[in-house]
Design a protein that fits this description.
This protein has about 375 residues and is α/β, with parallel strands linked by helices. The protein has 17 helices and 10 strands.
């Protein structure tokens, strides 16, 4: 007989320790939002849940429970319990949950116990854990010290963020680099999953490390995802650490990320169609900023881009990409950055190269 551990409402420990969890909600609920360590092993399918819900509204709880047992029985029940049992045995430290820690959790827990595997549930379920994470973000944003890492496009802000231990990589969590050219292979997480993952990372660095939390300077949106309001509203108030790098270094960084690195990502994802996908990505990204560039500048930079892509495709030489990168920096990103920085000068706490910023952070905050 497995150990009969108690149910828990220690949400902080669940997230700090990355405890595995079994999500008993329907697939549609899980796809809308869940937690990074959760696995979807639903008590009911979406259709079954819908049928039970209609029965509950029309005839009450007892009839709904009876309907649920009539839908999930025999081989169907046996297969689901077998999957839960396999998870529980693989993750003896884990827990199960449903939406509120109510009937679905208790039924699943009861069936597991009948199968010889007592398994604890999370009190309050998904709703309580979600509320805990929302409140965690609010609390940390209001009470912790933050420093925002800024700098011109191509100065390597994300590299610096990832080199600082007490930091959160917002763009990594959002699976997007935060600009017209920022879309990554694969979808962005759902808004709820992004908020949950961000709250968990904030909790971990707040609890385990000293000093301010470093975040990269972002607008209120990263691709299709909005920053949680407690972060978005305060980001314009927190002090700035600015990275300053020469133009050649910035071109090198963008060339690495958006040419050689991006092509490798597309080739891994699309195989023989990788270069075609890479070409379409860069062309579309430039097209999306055409109105801000203006017709003449867009046409000039697009010509440089098309020339670079043709040379790249034919010979494998990537050097021609440097011309359109420099033109886009000097004619689009830098003027926009200069205007935005003029509104932030009073918040500047540090200026220097990326390496100098990392050294300053270590010397100042350990």
């Amino acid at each position: 007989m497995a150990e009969n551990r108690p149910n828990t409402d220690d949400y902080k420990r669940l997230f700090l320790e990355d405890v595995p969890m079994m999500d008993m909600r329907a697939p549609v609920e899980f796809s809308h939002g869940a937690f990074p360590t959760a696995t979807s092993l639903p008590l009911m399918t979406d259709k079954e849940r819908e049928t039970v819900g209609i029965t509950y509204k029309e005839k009450g709880q007892d009839a709904a429970i009876e309907m649920g047992h009539s839908l999930v029985h025999g081989d169907i029940k046996e297969a689901r319990v077998a999957a839960w049992k396999a998870f529980a045995e693989a993750h003896p430290e884990g827990y199960l949950y449903c939406f509120r820690g109510g009937l679905r959790s208790q039924i699943s827990q009861g069936w597991l116990k009948e199968a010889g595997v007592p398994y604890p549930l999370v009190k309050g379920g998904y709703k309580a854990m979600r509320r805990f994470l929302i409140e965690t973000t609010e609390r940390i944003a209001a009470n912790e010290e933050f420093i925002i890492v800024g700098g011109r496009t191509g100065t390597g802000k994300t590299v610096v963020i990832n080199a600082i231990e007490k930091s959160v990589d917002l763009e990594g969590l959002a699976n997007h680099r935060g600009s017209s050219f920022g879309r990554r292979i694969g979808d962005q997480p759902t808004p709820i999953n992004f908020e949950n993952a961000l709250a968990i990372q904030l909790l971990k660095v707040s609890e385990r490390l000293k000093g301010p939390i470093f975040l990269e300077d972002e607008s209120n949106r990263i691709g299709g995802l909005g920053l949680p309001l407690p972060i978005a509203e305060r980001m314009s108030e927190w002090p700035l650490a600015l990275i300053e790098e020469p133009m050649e270094a910035r071109i090198d960084n963008i060339h690495r990320d958006y040419v050689t690195g991006l092509l490798a990502e597309h080739e891994t994802a699309y195989g023989d169609k990788g270069f075609e996908s890479f070409d379409e990505f860069l062309t579309s990204a430039l097209y999306r900023v055409r109105k801000r560039l203006g017709g003449a500048r867009y046409a000039d930079i697009n010509t440089l881009l098309r020339t670079a892509l043709d040379i790249h495709r034919e010979s494998g030489n990537t050097d021609a990409h440097r011309a359109w990168i420099e033109a886009l920096l000097t004619q689009y990103y830098d003027p926009m950055y200069d205007y935005q920085l003029s509104q932030k000068t009073q918040r500047i706490l540090f200026k220097g190269t990326g390496a100098e910023l990392i050294a300053w952070q270590k010397a100042t905050y350990g």
